[in-house]
């Protein structure tokens, strides 16, 4: 392997603008990566906040395993077609989420337990299918993309999902929030409490699977949950938490991509680590409940 | 009395005549090797490849049937040079006690970088010149394991080696027809170290070699710059990896997808690389065509 | 005023896993009545209330609603424990959901409705609490907020499940006054309560429940020693070896 020479340094001075925007102006793939981050932030940010508040934070990671049998069946039917495997993965993820939701609603099993049960079953089924029928191609590795390789169809997928997801979320915002913290009341005034919950689960799976395919698991789950966790320390209400999460996600993407460019760090981890740095900073210095903020708050009001 | 003696003689002679030799059961690690063994071995050697077409020989999850096949095998072939790290454990578990032939013995090795470490490049077979060495080792091993057909193997081996030699010369001719500054290609996987070194083609890859590692934006940017600067026109996919990164780079630079190269596995029987010789020819043809456009 | 039954219980049975939480309850709530449901622990009072609201399905018998729509006209205040108070939402946003029947899931909240929210908060003594997060309220304050929500619901039937549990005396008094006001507005009110003094003082009707109906009628007639004795004899534990109830009619 011949070594690749260092990037050319221009003669123009390194202004701040050039440092921040330069790579994005120069390279289409960087622009697409940034747009993909924007779509991910808008689509997954609010969903992450709701997952966090409903104590379902680990769902994202579990879902990355739950999609396996669907991808395997998609592969068996259509070969290495990305779309076939993505649709298969979506169906599998949806089945797991819906079954878990229904079971937790109608039995004594809580959401996290029923979800754990179904996703493990799904994962085992997937491994079985792959082992008996597949060649030894790492299906999940092929299914999960990387942000630097976002092509038109992947961009369309994440962008489309983000748009549709945001619109639906806006539409069912009130009943969904109510379902989160006072499901009893919702059930007494509206017969459709479960419906909103199921719609929410569908949105979760949709966002996750689209993000897996375009950006890989680390980024998909990382940018769904980390900004939400950080936003807890800055925003007062659930609405502003969602907006804060979107902003933090976008900033993480932007800074992470820049870091990947300037310091030759792998892109996905760089972005997620940036998100983690935001998270730690939020824990320490967040306006609401930050550790240092609390320690340093010495003077209180008169009333 | 004479009749009895005659009968006895015939009986002894019947036993003394060589028993028709049993066919050989051979197991190889992956398809490229399996094909080469078949070419040299002929009809009386039954070859089974553990990894199927389009598979990845670096990682493999064995099944119980594999263990069985190994236990019943007369001879086992691996490519060696660290390619089949999973093989040792499988052989031990299966209880196979026979010889494991390293087909790459005698190849002048190159090194490569993987996950930050420098290791021996195991993809020796992608150069036809090394293929000749593989064929020789295979013929020798088969003759040793099955002495009764030794002559057969020797003849078939020589014939195969000649075929591969011819391919090697042909490849040199094709590549040398292209001016040196044009001999650069982009490929997603670095299995072509020996091919590149053997025929003077420069391979560049944007991603690390392990399926776990991920590219940085800087890597991709540099590669894009280089392709544009040096006017590299041809980008090649590889049949067992995610093609999206390569496609992205192609679309960004205006380079053309030169086709799929076969590096670590044969294609299915109907495909463009059903056997080793065809695979090599296919690779060289695609590469040359791509490089001409640079 | 002619009394009309608004909610009739007809041989109502609600079970958990075949054990009767309440069984064979018959009777009716008159429109405009102010009824207390009392009984020992585990008597099925909450269960009965949930069945009336429609959160639990009857295992036997039924409930009839005369002249009202169960969703629109019945307001229900559950026990506090079912609400996640750590959720980051303000008092105003919580209370405004009382307008559900008018705006549904998707309608916009008008300024007139926000005004009503402010009025309701005033009525329960939570002036200026609109922007506070529900997690920052005390138990008493939060209960007042839930009552404010009830005010906005404009329901004709109000069900309160242990509304004064662990609430300070001042809040209890204020909320009881609110209940009296509702009674004056001819709303039908049913409340699960534990404090017999409270019941005797403020609630003209009483339903005495110990899994089965012991008595139902004017408070002074129901809360007599004979009934209270029967109530105490109710077994609290469910009998695992109990026979099938002889009054089952399939």
Helices and strands in order:
The complex is a heterotrimer of chains A (303), B (294) and C (250).
Chain A lengths: L15 H11 L1 H26 L5 H8 L1 H11 L3 H25 L4 H23 L5 H5 L8 H20 L1 H9 L1 H7 L3 H23 L1 H15 L6 H25 L4 H19 L5 H6 L7
Chain B lengths: L1 H15 L7 E5 L2 H11 L3 E5 L14 H9 L2 E4 L8 H8 L5 E3 L8 E4 L2 E4 L7 H18 L4 H27 L7 E4 L5 H7 L2 E3 L12 H14 L3 E5 L5 H10 L2 E6 L14 H17 L2
Parallel strand pairs in B: 1-2, 1-3, 3-4, 7-8, 7-9, 9-10
Antiparallel strand pairs in B: 5-6
Chain C lengths: L4 E12 L2 E12 L3 E5 L6 H9 L6 E6 L4 H4 E4 L13 H6 L3 H4 L7 H13 L15 H15 L3 E5 L7 H16 L3 E5 L3 H7 L2 E6 L1 E7 H4 L2 H8 L18
Parallel strand pairs in C: 3-7, 3-8, 5-6, 6-7
Antiparallel strand pairs in C: 1-2, 1-4, 8-9
Helix pairs in contact in C: 5-6
Could you characterize what this model shows?
- The complex is a heterotrimer of chains A (303), B (294) and C (250).
- By secondary structure, chain A is an all-alpha fold.
- Chain A has one domain: ABC transporter involved in vitamin B12 uptake, BtuC, CATH 1.10.3470.
- Chain A has 15 helices and no strands.
- In chain A, helix 2 crosses helix 12 and helix 9 packs across helix 10.
- Chain A starts with 15 loop residues before the first helix and ends in a 7-residue tail after the last helix.
- The relative contact order of chain A is 0.14.
- With 294 residues, chain B is α/β, with parallel strands linked by helices.
- In chain B, the strands form three sheets. A four-stranded parallel β-sheet of chain B has the order 2-1-3-4, with helices on both faces. In chain B, strands 8-7-9-10 form a four-stranded parallel β-sheet, with helices on both faces.
- In chain B, helix 2 packs across helix 5.
- Chain C is an alpha/beta fold.
- Chain C has two domains: 147 residues, Rossmann fold (3-Layer(aba) Sandwich); 73 residues, no CATH class.
- Helix content of chain C is 34%, strand content 25%.
- In chain C, a hairpin with a 1-residue loop joins strand 8 and strand 9.
- The model of chain C has no long low-confidence stretch (mean pLDDT 87).
- Chains in contact: A-B, A-C.
- Chains A and B meet through helix 2, helix 13 and helix 14 of A and strand 8, helix 8 and helix 9 of B.
